[in-house]
Amino acid sequence: MGLREDLVRALTDSGELSARWREAFLAVPRHAFLPDTIWYSDPLKRLSRNENPTEWLAAAYADDCVVTQLDDGTQDGPGLATSSASMPAVVATMLDLLDVEPGMRVCEIGTGTGYNAALLAYQLGPNNVMTVEVDPALARRARAALDAAGYGGVTVVCGDGLEGCPELAPFDRIIATANAQRIPYAWVEQTKPGGRIVCPWGTAFFSGALVSLSVDADGVARGGIAGRASFMDLRAQRVSPVDADADIYDEERATVTRTSLRTDDVIGSYDVNIAMAVLVPDCHALPTADGLWLIDPTSRSWAYAADGEVRQLGARRLWDEVEAAHRSWVDAGSTRATAWRFTVGPAGQRITPRR
What we know:
Layout: H1 2-13, H2 19-27, E1 37-40, E2 45-48, H3 53-60, E3 66-70, E4 81-85, H4 88-98, E5 106-109, H5 115-124, E6 129-133, H6 136-148, E7 155-158, E8 171-176, H7 185-189, E9 191-202, E10 207-215, E11 221-227, H8 244-247, E12 255-258, H9 263-267, H10 270-279, E13 284-287, E14 291-296, E15 301-306, E16 309-313, H11 318-331, E17 340-345, E18 348-353
Helix pairs in contact: 1-2, 2-5, 10-11
């Protein structure tokens, strides 16, 4: 148990693991929830438990994300990560934000390996934990890992997490381990008044926020950004992927203008990244050594800004949108990331600056 203790000690010393969750992190073996083949580092490197058991175990107890599935489990995909075991420090942060108490019932959206559900089960009792996984193969594997680790009472549901788990609602808490661009109202409906929802949030432009919402008696959830973390998207809300060869086209037809806005003005800080994510929807931001590409594959629009020159083409004038968004953000006082107010009601999600 030395590696596990080392990880817990490091997380405790850094302040990322609270006393409330320390015992659970010591008791639940993270390695028991990982498949024999994992991928880590950037670019991704394959690591086999059978071929390199010592290195595999070290990766299991490093404070780092471990990729556990590529290409939704298909054999001939491009090698994109589609499921993972989250960085332990982020797991600890999200569980703290959840603010659970004994006897509470929790629904987790995105079972993944089952490790997070096991931590919740240790704290609350397995019968108080429900977890929803859209991928049947991942759900089966997590079910087996939970059973083997002694948490057979956890309910594992194979279904679309976007819909929550209405048949077992209501819950005191809902925690999502996949990024939601639009937090579903179904989660609010399934949370008791006074309950809490913790969810990663982000858009194509930028993904890196943890949102904490409280559900009020009027059936509306309200809250804001309470931490930083980047997660894979909910499968039902995946952003349109970028294919530079196809999406950047007819460069000779582009409109050319000048700008005083620099790349660093647009993506140079966490606060402005969040603002652009809110104000410029469905737009990928891809920095280069010299400038910044903006791409919206759906509308076949692109823009490139470098050294004060802007080239753009398509149904959307993406750089014009970014300039307008940046101007409104500055005029509003350069709203900090934590000052955006999230409201999720029957009409959907709204994100506005706090007044």
